[in-house]
Amino acid sequence: MGTITKSIGSDGRDYSTITLWDAALGGAAGGSGNDAIGEVYNDSAFDESPTVADNTPDTITLRAASGEEHDGTAGTGARIVRSTTASFLFKFDGTNIAAIETLEFDANRKSNSTAVEIITGSGNPSGARRLHRCLAHGLLTTSDTTTGVDCDGNTSVQNCLIYDIDNQAGGAAANIGLKLPTGSARDSQAFNCTVHNVNKNGTGSSTGISVNDDASNTCQNCIVTDTNNEGVGSAVDFSPASPSNATMDHNLSSDNTASGTGSLTSKASADQYVSNAEGSEDLHLASGADAIDAGSDLGTSPASVEIDIDGRDRDSEGDTWDIGADEYVAAPPASKAHVLGGGVGGYIIGA
Amino acid sequence: MPELALKIGDSATYEDGDIVDAFNARRIRRVHAEMLCHPKRNRALAEVFAGETREYKFERVSNTEVRRTNLLTNESDVLSDRPNSNGEQIKVSLFLARRKACPRHLIFGDVGAERWYGGVAAYSDDVMDRVWAAIETQTRHRENTFRRWPFSEGELKQFLVLPVDDFTDLAREEYKAPLLQEQNGQVVQVKRRKHGVDWRKGLGLSAKEVADVVDGGKPVDLRASKQPFGREGIVRVKKAKLAGEL
């Protein structure tokens, strides 16, 4: 019948937490027959683990308000940052998800086992669902499986950055950066995502992007780098490395598991990103990155796939598509310092 | 003042009296501190907040180099565009140009000597004590005027907010936990919340107060009129039904 848009933030918005907004979706924040939109503000970090699960509205969208989006790095926009342990950071459990967009999910190494979990219920409900332009990072668990983004059902994960997914549980507990659903005919997709530093310590597997080898699943234009296992278990950037049914092409890996037409293997993460330094990660592509202009042109379907992590429209700009969440463009003029003596201890005169 | 936000009336997902959200003292003092230290309000305090809460401080030391200091151990190393032994690198000019393109960026210091903060964030009471000390030193704000969660007027119409005695982070998570039950060998969620409050009868509210809450036409804020409730006396734990009762 209509669209109900509510603001969410701690500084004079309609709702002060995502949890309270969700609890109002059956009424003032949504209601039957409506499309509910929650617009999240960067007034302060949300210290909560919300579950959004109310099938009363026709559709639910949760996104950063205009001007409140992250800039592709942590701590710069509307975000959830956990201060205490919880089993998950954000969960959508329902059949009416439309989109989760432009938000940051920072588990802050507080023993969460999942950063973003999207459950679309039993079966495979129709309609477009997407996780789009989000950051998910900082997972650490010592007692369970770990998954950065865990999808169940027909979901399209697009232009997301997923990094620092760390499983120190030992044993066989699996560790996955981005997991598309198991089962047949789930119709799930990973398009233009960047996954970095998925680390495991144990006998279990560590996997950057895990795709069920079913004809309904697709993984294209994704970067996975530095998937690691400190223990004796396996570590692969992409699984499967040789799909029989799933569509996997134009991907880039730092190991040899990116397969299919146009894929690139054995590429060092240091050559791809602006920064992979712990605590100051910036996974935008750097000049000269192998991923630049190496992607497949996906056009405009599914919806929004052409919009990169920064909001750049690859299609309308006529870009040659890159691999990964970022479409490389020359950065604004750098603030170059004049250094006398150079290096650590040199004298710097601000230019 | 620690607070619980209760559901008023049943909905498709919640029951009347469910504890929808829970705010202990630490969460309340954090949210106000973070807003007062937001870069759009006070950049000096924004740096204090970042420096007190974050794991690492980064300082540009040349065109291509950055010193990274662990603020807990004071250990430092230097990063550059050449990968270190861990494969870490940063192209600092490009990194800073991108950050500074955002009007509310968190890059501090003069050009050529920029500094910023990152890594894991800590919000312990000690950390918040230091942040609030800085706020009170540098502004006229006082923490004792920021003791309540910043609910909107609409929220105070839709939810019943109770002042309560303080509780731990663990209790906070427990209050928001669903009621689970084993069915056919699988643990399933049977109710959205395990904990609730019989607010209509269990708080000693007058008939008018109850009517005002149910009416929802105007905000009801018991924080202004009630002393904190003792949680042990009011919070009820729902019981999962036996399989035959489902």
Describe the structure.
The complex is a heterodimer of chains A (351) and B (246). Chain A has 351 residues and is mainly beta. In chain A, 2% of the residues lie in helices and 34% in strands. In chain A, a hairpin with a 6-residue loop joins strand 27 and strand 28 (347-349). Chain B has nine helices and eleven strands. Chain B has helices at residues 25-36, 43-53, 92-100, 125-138, 153-158, 169-175, 199-202, 207-215, 231-234, and strands spanning 3-7, 19-23, 54-60, 66-70, 76-79, 115-121, 159-163, 179-183, 186-191, 195-197, 235-237. In chain B, a hairpin with a 5-residue loop joins strand 3 (54-60) and strand 4.
Summarize the structure.
The complex is a heterodimer of chains A (351) and B (246). Chain A is mostly beta strands and 351 residues long. Chain A contains one helix and 28 strands.
Largest sheet: spatial strand order of chain A = 1-2-4-7-10-13-16-19-23
Number of helices of chain A: 1
Mean pLDDT of chain A: 89
Name the quaternary structure: heterodimer
Give the topology string of chain B: H per helix, E per strand: EEHHEEEHEHHEHEEEHHHE
- Provide the gyration radius of chain B in Å: 24 Å
Helical fraction of chain A: under 10%
Task: Compute the number of helices of chain B.
Answer: 9
Strand order of the largest sheet of chain B: 5-4-3-6
Task: Tell me the greatest interface.
Answer: A-B, 76 and 74 residues
In the predicted model, the low-confidence regions of chain A spanning at least 5 consecutive residues are 334-351
Which percent range describes the beta-strand content of chain B? 15-25%
